[in-house]
Amino acid sequence: MDPFNSTILADNLEELQGRLGNSPDIVIRRLKSITTQVEVAAIYIDGLVEKLMVNEFVEHAMSFDKLSEVNLELTSAEDIFNYMKEVARGIGEEQTTSDWDGLYEALFSGDTILWVDGVKDAIRGNTSGGEVRAVSEATTQVAIRGSKEAFTESMGTNISLVRRKIQSPDLWIESMKIGKVTQTNVSLMYIHGIVNDSILDELRKKLKSITIDGILESGYIEQLIEDTPFTPFPTLYNTERPDSVAGNLLEGRVAIFVDGTPFVLIAPTTFFMFFHAVEDYYQRFDITTLIRILRFICLAISLFGPALFVAILNFHQEMIPTPLLINLASQREGVPFPAFIEAILMEITFEIIREAGIRMPSPIGQTVSIIGGLVLGQAAVQAGIVSPAMVIVVSLTGISSFATPAFNMALSIRILRFIIMFIAAFMGLYGMAIFLFILIAHMCSLNSLGFPYMSPFAPFIADNQKDTIMRVPLKYMKTRPRLLYQKNHTRLKTNERKPGGAK
């Protein structure tokens, strides 16, 4: 703690400006009341405050004209300070600070500081505001049915969006600051009585152990608290949808809010969560089940499509029907490269087009992606660089990868696809099978805050099979995931009626 060294206002203001490098966004308003003739300074950072709230706070605290109504006499600077503190307390959050660390925290949080000449302590009032992005529609997790709200960069706004969906006193929030330089606000949100205390304690321990200069996005937190950093699979789920956070909280998970980012982390996480969309619970169970099965089929195509084509073409031609094999051979007659090189060239080209489309402005990016894919694919075939069949396989693989609802899981599949292609080129289907066994074993060894990543299949939990690849009707999903809930494990009670109207 670094306390104030002087009671002289001018000295304190000079030291403050020196410590902050005379930054132009530090606003210092010197005020003097006709009634008291004692100088007061109002200090705030432009852009972090709501100007109307600042004016209201300062005017209310400096309203010495009411002294006659309460029969008070201010004979010293200490009396003026106490009077202003009591008046400020009547209009909202009011605290006092007596050290530089508390002063910096107040200023960078959007508070306004009132400093009285002759008094060491300062008064801080909550006037945070400034320009923030309005609540808009989600861009990375689009849903046809359901809420159109998405998180913003303001943590207060994000928490309020979840509060509106879960209006319960058991929705608890814990706040902390992480980052020696950035002092980023991080909050844990969970439902008391549903969350597993061991998971919550483990998460608190991991967050408090972080010692880093700055946290600029929730991705920093994700990388610093994950159990196994050396894995291609994400072990924490991120979302920009309030309804997705609410649904996971009701299952006993914990949400991690980071100020300055619209993406909220969910922990613990399972592999199957990345293939569930929030609208899966807004549709009928049969529709949801079919769509989920389709997503896992797309997962298999995007992961094994090019590798399977290369392996069969190089090592297992007997698996291809004779007419199709003759057709493929005729297509490859003028191609100078082996199938593996073809696949690598086309996959790298597709990744370049996709990355360029993401980084460019939206209207131009979509045009470049579509036209670039068509033109390059057609030109490559006409030039005899690749065969038409390879263009079809790579295109189908790329389109299938877009069916994965979670973008970070889709990135992991893209990385693994190249590894499997190398193995298929040198070891065929046998190498692919061996790699698949190793990959499954690796996934079964992963944990998310101590929670099995492949649950409820490894370990196998029969009660939790109602919402994995398939989903049963909602009225049969009466309990929460078994390894997550603590006390209140029932989430649905139905009044079953017997035939004839009897209960």
Summarize this structure briefly.
The protein has 15 helices and twelve strands. With 503 residues, it is α+β, with helices and mostly antiparallel strands.
How is this structure best described in words?
This protein has helices at 9-19, 51-61, 67-70, 77-89, 100-108, 155-165, 197-208, 218-225, 242-250, 285-315, 322-331, 339-359, 362-382, 388-401, 407-445; strands at residues 26-32, 39-45, 94-97, 111-116, 122-126, 171-178, 184-191, 237-239, 254-258, 264-267, 447-448, 451-452. It is of the alpha+beta class. The strands form three sheets. The protein has a five-stranded antiparallel β-sheet with strand order 1-2-4-5-3, with helices on both faces. A five-stranded antiparallel β-sheet has the order 6-7-9-10-8, sandwiched between helices. A two-stranded antiparallel sheet has the order 11-12. The longest helix is centred in the last third of the chain and has 39 residues, at 407-445. The chain is elongated. The mean pLDDT is 85.
Strand order of the largest sheet: 1-2-4-5-3
* Secondary structural class: alpha+beta
Count up the domains: 3
Q: Which descriptor suits the 3D outline?
A: elongated
Largest sheet: 5 strands, antiparallel
Helix content: 40-55%
Low-confidence stretches: none
Number of helices: 15
Question: What layout of secondary structure does this protein have?
Answer:
Layout: H1 9-19, E1 26-32, E2 39-45, H2 51-61, H3 67-70, H4 77-89, E3 94-97, H5 100-108, E4 111-116, E5 122-126, H6 155-165, E6 171-178, E7 184-191, H7 197-208, H8 218-225, E8 237-239, H9 242-250, E9 254-258, E10 264-267, H10 285-315, H11 322-331, H12 339-359, H13 362-382, H14 388-401, H15 407-445, E11 447-448, E12 451-452
Antiparallel strand pairs: 1-2, 2-4, 3-5, 4-5, 6-7, 7-9, 8-10, 9-10, 11-12
Helix pairs in contact: 2-4, 6-9, 10-14, 10-15, 12-13, 12-14, 12-15
